[in-house]
Amino acid sequence: MKRVPALQISIFSLFLFLSSCQQEKQANILYIMSDDHAYQAVSAYGYGLNNTPNIDRLAEEGIRFTNAFCTNSICAPSRAVVLTGKFSHVNGHLDNSSTFDGSQVTVPKLLREAGYETAMIGKWHLKSDPTGFDFWKVLLGQGPYYNPDLKDSTGVRNYEGYTTTIVTDEALNWLNDRNQEKPFFLMVHHKAPHRNWMPEPKYFNFEEKTFPVPDNYFDDYSNRGRAAKEQKMSVIVDMMIGYDLKVINPDTTVSQTGDNWIKGMLGRLNPEQRAAWDAHYDPIIEDFYSQNLEGEELALWKYQRYMRDYLACIQSVDDQVGRLLDYLDETGLVDNTAVFYTSDQGFYLGEHGWFDKRFMYEESLGMPLLVRLPGVTEAGTSSDALVQHLDFAETFLDLAGAAIPEEMQGMSILEPIRETANSGGIPGDWRKSIYYHYYEYPGAHAVKRHYGVRNEQYKLMHFYHNIDEWEMYDLEKDPKEMNNIINDPAYKDILLEMKAELARLQVQYGDSEEAAEKLIPIQS
Ligand code: SGN
Ligand code: CA
């Protein structure tokens, strides 16, 4: 055997020692993101609508953020912000019609350079194929609830079963097969609970539940502007009885909204799945047509029907989060794996009478965010720090001990996490306000373009493009945003401060209304 000089041995052992230290420092990262999961529907947030014990484990064993916000309340743009650590106007992904420029710098690419093995499984929705991942397997577009097609670098394959379960199966397969020598970065993105909320049979029993109706379900949008009045996301008016609420008219001569769409979805089911579906929904359909509901009764029936399917879909997500957490326990990875649970944005569960998102109002601006990393997060804590999707790339790089590029626009949330563990407070130099900009108009649900600023107590928004209206809310006095105080003389000084803060943020992030109008040509 060739002898190695003593000095070489000691340099070699030093290298081994340093690389093992490096590995210890670099936590594994498991990022679980669902689609349209409202914070009101995570029981750790205390709204009493449902019970999500597995997602709640992350709050009990880690930290819960009470002020976590998106930057542009819609799917693909949020995903692009998470990947790049940059606002939509900088990463170029303004709305769901855009195609992601995968040649730009993204967090999986940087983590790979920092020694990580990277994977992306589930809903992708960015049109171009994923880049920067050692492994990817993604749904096509929005993906269905049952029997999905999944695409990887070798092509597309069909999978039989419930998508939420299949995405998790694939994540667990990858975890088992991964390179054990490297830390991992795994993104698990669920389709659920995105529209049209098709539950798995296990949770058909949600039909027996009745949910509290939000007190502003019958909102008439008085004291608000045209944007709130002219949207098309009303449960009562815009939800499709067939597609959304699963009530297909047995009289096929009657044309009813969404019947063909739901029939298309149901065409994907195998005979066994279809039999279980029909056994559940047929009596609901029969009951509905026997009642001839109208007016308020019909509106309340729609709300309950919506909530039952939406929350049932979340129950499956919760089960599958549980499987991943169990895996970390069983393999001993738990102590060195940072787990994030969040959503691509928030969602309306009947507040203001709505479903969907897009608006900068609280329910769709906010999102659940729970983080657990033993030794870093303190069990059962919460933070009121204002954080955004914008911060995630920076946070992952911070966890990896990798440099955060200057051009990234967010801040590592390890700072407020550490401060929560130290003092229970927010770091003094943490941001005091957040910036928001939504572009997809004209588009589905007709929410007008707007941008704005929110701080701890106030929110200022400007709706523009085919409208020029400002709204301001006092979130302490009016948390449900029912009363626009933009013309209230009592808030004259606050308005000036908020306008100045908005202008400051636009300079800081390099955005403006004029630039936005040039990014997307005026269509109407
Ligand atoms: C689909 C939905 C919309 C939803 C968008 C965007 N309609 O178009 O209700 O707002 O997705 O959602 S559907 O009839 O096709 O279900 S996002 O989460 O992907 O941004
Ligand atoms: Ca979404």
Task: Characterise the protein shown here.
- The chain has 2 domains: 29-426, 3-Layer(aba) Sandwich (Alkaline Phosphatase, subunit A); 435-519, Arylsulfatase, C-terminal domain.
- Helix 6 runs parallel beside helix 10.
- The protein contains 15 helices and 16 strands.
- The strands form 3 sheets. A 10-stranded mixed beta sheet has the order 7-6-5-4-8-1-9-10-2-11, with helices on both faces.
- Strand 14 (450-455) and strand 15 (458-463) form a beta hairpin.
- Helices cover 35% and strands 15% of the residues.
- It has helices at 6-25, 53-61, 75-84, 88-91, 107-113, 163-177, 226-230, 259-266, 271-291, 295-331, 362-365, 392-400, 414-422, 492-509, 513-519, and strands at residues 28-34, 63-65, 68-69, 117-122, 135-139, 149-152, 155-158, 184-189, 337-343, 369-372, 381-383, 387-388, 433-438, 450-455, 458-463, 469-474.
- It is of the alpha/beta class.
- The chain is globular.
- Residues 35-36, 74-75, 96, 142, 194-196, 356, 444-445 line the site of 2-deoxy-6-O-sulfo-2-(sulfoamino)-alpha-D-glucopyranose (SGN).
- 2-deoxy-6-O-sulfo-2-(sulfoamino)-alpha-D-glucopyranose binds next to loops.
